[in-house]
Amino acid sequence: MNNTSTLTVQNVVIGVILLAALLAVPHFLKLYHQDLLIYLTINVLAVCSYRLVTLTGEWSLIHAVMMGVGAYTASLLFIHFGLDMWFTLPLAGGVAALVAALLCFPLLRMTQFYFLIGSFAAGEAIRLTWIEFVGVFGGTGGLTGVEPPIFWGIDFIDPIPYYYLSLAIVSFSLFILYRIENSRVGLTLHAIHWKAALAESVGVDAWRYRALAFIVGSFFVGVAGALKVHYLGSVSPNQASIGFMVFILIWVIVGGYNKFYGPIIGVVVLTVFDESIRSFEVMRPAIYGIVLILSILFLPLGLESIPGKIKSWFGVGPAPQDPPLTDQ
Amino acid sequence: MGISRRDFVRTTTAAGALVVSSGLPSRVFAAGQKTVKVGMNIPMTGDYAPWGLPGLYGCQIIADDINAAGGVNIGDDNYAIEIVSYDHAYDLEKAVQGYKKMVSEDDVKMVMMLGGSTVGAIAKWAERKKMLTTTLLCSDITPDTPNLIATCESHPLYNVTGVEWLAKHHPEVKTAAIVTNNDAEYGLQSTATYQAAFEVAGIEVVDVNLHGFDVTDFAPIVSSVLAKKPDVFCMATSFYVTPLMEQLYHQGFKGKIISCTLDYYDEIIAKTSKEFVEGTIFQFPDFDDPKLNESGINFPNPGDFDAKFRKSHPNDWSAVAWEYPAILLNWIEGAKQAGTVEPQAVSATLRSNKNPAFIFGGGKWWGKDLWGQDNVVVGRWPVVVVKDGKARIQEYGSVSGWLDKHAGVLTKYMKSHGLRTV
Q1: C-alpha closest to that of B24 among B66, B68, B60, B78
Q2: SS3 of B357, please?
Q3: 3-state DSSP call for residue B422?
Q4: Which run of H or E residues covers position B116?
Q5: E strand or H helix that includes residue A143
Q6: Burial (Cβ within 10 Å: 0-12, 13-18, ≥19) of residue A276
Q7: B5-155+288-378 has CATH 2.120.10.30 classification
Q8: Contacts of B44 in chain A (CB under 8 A)
Q9: Which of the residues B44, B147, B306, B415 has the least number of beta carbons within 10 Å of its own beta carbon?
Q10: Do domains B5-155+288-378 and B159-282+381-416 have the same CATH topology?
Q11: Interface residue A51 vs chain B (CB under 8 A)
Q12: What is the mean pLDDT of residues A272-284?
């Protein structure tokens, strides 16, 4: 009991310090890094929502496109109907979730690599729609002129207010995602991942749960897309390209996906690293690639496994283990 | 009050000549010298890098030359030029971040950009800060962007000169087919311009083939287009000139070829043959071209610039290698004329000049009829033809002359592709 209380107090203290740091950090940064912080905050939601999809063991290549669906929805609603961000945000998530729900029927007939390839094809079909229908979606140039809200006299075009707004929305979204993962639904998603046949043998409808993960993950990444476009002001098909999807994958894999915070560590560390090597200009992609290869070789369980490794070196705990193999 | 072309050429040539003759180190610090920063927010990595990075190399050559010659006098101060670059890799998020960094942290006085969606993304913030920004794509200009100007490349308007030359020198040509990527920023703008130019020239367009960026095999595209038996194969700002040229070669095309760009044409010759590429028409000269030494060219020592560039970056010459430097030189003259480096003053001075010192001469401000602002400098533009394996200027066409007569035709085709016009 005492141990539990101590742990809770420790967690609360860590939480308070983290919150204070998150609230204080933009005041120590210049505009460039304040912007970077906003995009980083939004990308945290993108990777965490992606992790929800991967909980069932399915890795998709459509998540970046779903973020684009959210961004395009918010842009069209703002440009044509003048809807404020307060309305476009949930609607963007809703439309992304609706698209995901429709795609469940063809895509979730497939699993593993087939699902991966199928999701890529579906994503490209959506992206090509944005490119081909120039009149509606602006073609390759995309849509511009989206604005952040002005609320209670606060102009959210300024980075610090927008950062706080993003932080609040992303934190609330992460809380929901965390609660889902730690609920019965989340445990079932894990069960489908590691022991799908066993789960189905006790009456779990794996298709429904996979669909649920895909739809909920798409909803939150749709919200992330809307959040981004209201600050950036523009959206183009290029933003939802396979290139950005690869970044999402890298952030999740390098950070680690066994724990909720793994992808968050991945996106934060790699974003900071990417910026720190910006002065290398044309050599940057090569340096980034080498570091990725090294991290995957020497940290196959991701950056999240580092504390466990350090503890095991000091004999405090067991070394992190590979997750069990799936039975699919 | 206008910038005198003679002054422009005289001062910049003197600066260049001084560097060449003195053999000074690349940077000389004069007592009391200030530094003015000019930004380049461009793609330096990724698919668009060939239309960004060579421009940075070119600007660094120009800046080094000017600095070595003691800098430039603007108002009562002497300035060294510093180029501040940011690689946005044609990503909107990075483009906006890089732009804000340059303006708010680096204190640049002008930002040069490639254009397209990256310019669209920064436009609102740029206007809020009233920052002078340049683009190579004049279609980026809107009624809401008074500080966005295109002082060198007026893509894709100049393509009309190539078609005009083709019709004049090859009257036997009656039909043409256009092939390009289907993007709104480059491909469709260029297609509309070529369609208008062909119509004016009396050449019938028998096929317009717009393909996506996902194409890897160009054989079927070329086969389908050649089935229409065009006299002219036109690549309208295609990102795929080399594979298209290879297919044309392999499929035995014997007609005329016209293209907006022919970057890295040495490679194309190596992959096809010198005879096949012979006679190909495009719009971007090498700078060792003798015709660039004629009067009316507003670029100091083009041959010297060409030699320096190819020595330091032997495989990187592209269409933009001299375009960003030309914009930089133009800005310097504008700042000298304004007597200050402050963006608003330089912007106003440049735009108030009725006879802007356009790189190939004959410049005038244009664009209100099509995009809502007279913020594009159009003038003479070279028609380049490959002769004996070397790109050579044949003559200078008049973009402004063509637009005076046929802007309505261009607007018609822009609208037909759903492109923005006022």
Answers
A1: B68
A2: coil
A3: coil
A4: none
A5: strand A143-144
A6: exposed
A7: no
A8: 281-282
A9: B415
A10: yes
A11: no
A12: 81
Contact B325, B55 (CB under 8 A): yes
A288/A273 Cα distance (integer angstroms): 8
- Taking the C-alpha atoms of residue B88 and residue B98, their distance in angstroms, rounded to an integer, is 7
CB contact under 8 A, A144 and B123: yes
Chain A residues with CB inside 8 Å of B120's CB?
A: 141-142, 144, 234
Buried-state track A40-56, b at ≥16 Cβ within 10 A, e below 16: bbbbbbbbbbbbbbbbb
Report the C-alpha gap between B234 and B282 in whole angstroms: 10
B182 vs A131, A144, A278: nearest CB = A131
Size of chain B, expressed as the number of residues it contains: 422
Across the interface, of A35, A135, A141, the residue whose CB is closest to B120 is A141
State residue B111 phi and psi, 5-degree precision: -125, 125
Q: How many beta-carbon pairs under 8 angstroms link A with B?
A: 97
Angle at A153 between CA A151 and CA A157, to 5 degrees: 70
Structural domain spans, chain B: 5-155+288-378, 159-282+381-416
- Residue ranges per domain, chain A? 29-241
Give CA–CA dist A202/A211, Å, rounded.
Answer: 19
- Residue environment code for B128-163, b if the CB has 16+ CB neighbours within 10 A, otherwise e: ebebbbbbbbbbbbbeebbbbbbbbbbbbbbbbbbb
Q: How far B272 CA sits from the closest chain A CA (Å)?
A: 30
Instruction: Specify whether the CB–CB gap between A221 and A235 falls below 8 A.
Output: no
Q: Which positions in chain A touch B115 (Cβ < 8 Å)?
A: none
Q: Which residue has the tokens 């900071």?
A: A272
Q: Which amino acid is at B66?
A: I
Supply the pTM of this predicted model.
Answer: 0.83
Spatial contact of B192 and B407, defined as CB atoms under 8 Å apart: no
The tokens describing B157, both together, are 């308007």
Give me the mean pLDDT over the A85-101 stretch.
97
Region B159-282+381-416: CATH code:
3.40.50.2300
CA distances for B201 relative to A143, B169, B176, B177, B196, angstroms: 35, 12, 11, 14, 9
Distance between CA atoms of residues B80 and B34, nearest Å: 6
Is-contact B228 B206, C-beta < 8 A?
yes
Do the chains contact at B87 and A281, CB–CB below 8 Å?
yes
Q: Is A285 on the interface with B (CB under 8 A)?
A: yes
Within A133-278, residue ranges assigned H as helices are 134-137, 159-181, 184-194, 196-201, 206-232, 242-255, 262-276
Which of A33, A35, A132, A230 to probe the B interface (max B CBs under 10 A)?
A: A35
Contacts of A46 in chain B (CB under 8 A): none
Cα A263 off chain centre by = 8
Per DSSP, helices labelled H in B113-203 are: 117-128, 159-169, 187-201
Gyration radius (Cα) of chain A, Å: 20
B213-260 pLDDT, tens digit per residue, is 888 899 999 999 999 999 999 999 889 999 999 999 999 999 999 999
Nearest to B368 by CA among B192, B143, B145: B143
Tokens of B179: 């092939």
Question: pLDDT digit string (tens) for A100-133?
Answer: 999 999 999 988 889 999 999 999 999 999 988 8
For the purposes of burial, counting CB atoms within 10 Å of the CB of A136, is it exposed (0-12), middle (13-18) or buried (19 or more)? middle
Local confidence band at A175 (pLDDT 50, 70, 90 cut-offs):
very high
Is B107 part of the contact surface with chain A (CB cutoff 8 Å)? no
